[in-house]
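Item description
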Amino acid sequence: MDNEQLQHSLRKFLKQVGITSQQAVEKAIEQALQDGRLQGNERLHAVMRLEVEGLDLVHTVEGDIALE
């Protein structure tokens, strides 16, 4: 195993997850505000679940997203 390649590949994947996830959440919040489903002062509970095929790995991260 090439540890340097592993680290590079993992960082690249996690960067993609972070950027695309942020864009998806921002778009959904904007739409919910436009539709009147959100007021703009909520705290939204979020759950991110990561699974890796070939590994017995399920990693869950939970947290809140504050709109104000």
